[in-house]
Amino acid sequence: MVFDFLPDLPKSDLDDRDYESLVKECILRIPRYCPDWTNYNPSDPGVTLIELFSWLTDQMLSRFNQVPRRNYITFLELLGIRLQPPLPAQTELTFYLVGNLPEAYTIASETEVATERTATEEAIVFTTDRPLTIGQPKIQHFLTGDTAPTKPEVLRDRFTNFWNMQPNGQWSGPELSLFADTPQPGNCFYLVFDPEEPLEGNVLALTFKGQQATPTGINPNIPPRRWEAWNGREWQPVLLQETDDETQGFSFSDLAQRGGNPVQGADIVIHLPVNFPVAHFTAYRGRWLRCVCTEVSPHQPSYSRSPRTIGVGAQAIGGTVPATQCEIVFDEVLGESNGDPGQTFQLQRVPVLERVEDEYLIVTPPGGIPETWEEVTDFAQSSPTDRHYIIDSLTGVLQLGPLIREAGQLRQATELRAQVQTTNGRQTFLPAPSFGQQYGAIPPRGATLRMSRYRTGGGFEGNVQSGTLEVLKTAIPYVVSVTNHLAARNGADGETLEQAAIRVPQLLRTRDRAVTPEDFEELAIRGGNGAVARAHCLPVTPATAGTVRLLIVPQANRDGIDGGGIHPDRLTLNSELEVQILSYLEERRLLGVQVQCQQPHYLGVAVQAELALKPEYNNPAAQQEILSELRTALYEFLNPITGGIDGTGWPFGQPVYTSDAIALLQQFDYIRYISTIQLFPLRREGQSWIRLPPAPVINPGPLGLICSWADPAISSQHRINLIQ
User: Fold this and answer.
1) Distance between CA atoms of 191 and 514, rounded to whole angstroms?
2) Hey, which bits of 538-576 come out as E strands?
3) Kind of pairing, strands 171-177 and 164-165?
4) Which tens digits make up the pLDDT trace of 528-542?
5) What residues does 316 pair with on adjacent strands?
6) Strand pairing class (284-293; 225-230)
7) Which of 3, 350, 408, 557 is least surrounded by Cβ atoms within 10 Å, i.e. has the fewest?
8) CA 84 to CA 75: how far, in whole Å?
9) Cα-atom radius of gyration of the chain, to the nearest Å?
10) What's the CA gap between 6 and 506, in Å, rounded?
11) CB 190 within 8 Å of CB 203
């Protein structure tokens, strides 16, 4: 059966008349039924009555028009499909301590952190997913290497018989070169920490000490080095921002010029990955951190000599832990059982997030021992003794097992009810037996039902910006502050009926199997559980036969898109999401087909235009509002998520022409004419972005995707100048 008509379903109103049309229709009928009534003035009492009854009819029709919606939802439930509930946003919370503690410190899980509550907006609460242990870092080895491979093989130990460890855990000794005497790209040094000390997600302050007047020849504001930590799969960058490096690339001479004392040392704040496992490279075992000398741009000076240090130490000043947008409700009493099948109970907070291990229903019979019941997706395989229940995550309705009459039982029940038995000369009606199949157990009458706990939350509003989660709902000893350095992501609103009308035909068409490119795209989005905004399956070539390559665009917070677009760094495909998508597709792909996921090669575009407005808009305040509106339109148009003509994201691999920007701006009536328009490409080089000379067309290539954002440092913002 073909369901292509479903996405194009019109609004399912059985009666589409509204209040205005009802009033107009009634007035038009007046001459027919009341020819003597000639005054249709709104002040006429008769017209007032018409308006009153039209309003009442409109309210009735609004309820009447819900019937198709309910029928469609019931139809989906018969297929085993429910409207998807909202998805919670996820982020990472960083807690900072008041100082270095004498021993490891643990921040408990389920710690709540919220945004600032305002007069118009409620606070958005995030809860930590697991405990955070802030350890006591101990550097065991200081190793150097000439290159920076993925897995180090040739290392030199610089501590043994050379430096000494002080009682406070810091190492010191004679001057030690961090790189080769003439540093080359790839030179690096490693800090190996004690494997027994828990450091996952810890924020470290690395203290380096140096001698004064030891210039290295670099630009201290742009030092050619990068800090990385081994997360078990790859070397992950751990320096959040350049200002966290007080040594400025180990340029201790510049530190002295700024009034510091290199001998006392300067700190480098490092944010270790949440996954920071123990690794074994060559003969050394521990948790690995390294600093690599990097390539420099043509106009950037490199190290003329190796930076040197006379001491190094580490202390934990905080830690980072994953968090989810949710609030936890503990031990909620739902009510008492009446002993009937199919009972329903309403949870107080909705929507309900996906249940975890310790979230379940507790049934306490009268005078009995509490029983733990199990949640199932349906009652199809439930026997009358199975303690099962289901929860509708969207509505928060908890349902117990129903009694279902099977075929042929209705006639049998009717015959038995009419049966009369004569006993001792008296007629006695037999009690009607309970006919039907019971699916799932029924709590006895008077039993108390309560949820041990459940989580509520979710929605797009949870995708808050970075630096907005700073309110601790409960005080925690030794914690001085908390923040989110990354914007929250993956939050999504609950599914609407219109969205279900599009999803269900795709679901029925694919049958949860990936065969065509469209199947892989749809299932990749579904496998992301709301974290994937778009997916694109690349064409198969002879070189890639047997491999399906998917370009994945993660969801991102769009609240600030009107002020400066979406930075490509917020659209990075992280390893957790990649593993989640691949695991979902692994069970649904054809045998022998390999699946690869990667993010697009983002290419930025900055527009510079000169245009004239119509004379009636020659007002400074109006002009500023117009310029803001035009820049917002450009950011939304040249965007991976909201861009393109249809607003569903800029097409994969499609170039940007000057005519595209002209066509967009010509849609605004207040523009008199457009003088010039220039397009400037923005390309990533290393870990930074650069702006290139203007070009009439910007082609991202088959693996590329256009984006735009505002960054004054590289002049990536859209500039619009008004001329007369």
Assistant:
1) 45
2) 547-554
3) antiparallel
4) 877 888 999 998 887
5) 204
6) antiparallel
7) 408
8) 15
9) 33
10) 10
11) no
Interatomic CA distance for residues 439 and 404, integer angstroms: 8
Q: Which residues contact 676 (CB under 8 A, 6 or more apart)?
A: 609, 610
- The letter for the amino acid at 247 is T
Q: Considering the entire predicted model, what is its pTM?
A: 0.74
Q: Residue 556: which of 657, 653, 488 has the closest Cα?
A: 488
Question: Distance (Å, rounded) from C-alpha 346 to C-alpha 444?
Answer: 19
* CB count in 10 Å sphere of residue 199: 28
How many other β-carbons are positioned within 10 Å of the β-carbon of residue 309? 25
What's the CA gap between 690 and 711, in Å, rounded? 11
689 SS3 class: strand
Report the alpha-carbon distance of residue 659 to residue 599 in Å, rounded: 28
Distance, CA of 514 to CA of 616 (rounded, Å): 57
Kindly report, residue by residue over 201-255, the tens digit of the pLDDT: 999 999 998 876 566 788 888 889 999 999 998 899 999 988 899 888 888 766 7
Distance CA 208, CA 173 (A): 12
Q: Distance between CA 97 and CA 191 in Å, rounded?
A: 23
What is the pLDDT at residue 343? Answer: 93
> What pLDDT sits at residue 68?
67
Alpha carbon distance 330, 168 (integer Å): 44
Comparing CA positions, the residue from 223, 133, 152 lying closest to residue 191 is 152
Cβ atoms < 10 Å from Cβ of 387: 17
In Å, the largest CA–CA distance within the chain is 120
Q: How many helices (H) and strands (E) does the chain have?
A: 11, 40
Helix (H, G, I), strand (E, B) or coil at 276: coil
Where does residue 198 rank: exposed (0-12), middle (13-18), buried (19+ CB within 10 A)?
buried
Q: In CATH, what class is 512-598?
A: alpha beta
Q: Which residues contact 556 (CB under 8 A, 6 or more apart)?
A: 463, 487, 489, 533, 566, 570, 571, 641
If DSSP codes are grouped into helix, strand and coil, which group holds residue 229? strand
| Per-residue burial over 120-157, b = 16 or more CB atoms within 10 Å of its CB, e = otherwise | eeeebbbbbbeebbbbbbbbbbbbbbeebeeebeebee
DSSP per residue, 602-616: EEEEEEEEEEEE-GG
Of the candidates 650, 461, 645, the residue with the CA atom closest to the CA atom of residue 557? 461
* Structural domain 135-316, CATH architecture: Sandwich (2.60)
Q: List the chain residues with pLDDT less than 50.
A: 1-10, 420-424, 429-432
pLDDT value of residue 714:
87
Burial of 117 (0-12, 13-18, 19+ CB in 10 A): exposed
> Count of alpha carbons within 13 Å of 684, Cβ hemisphere only?
15
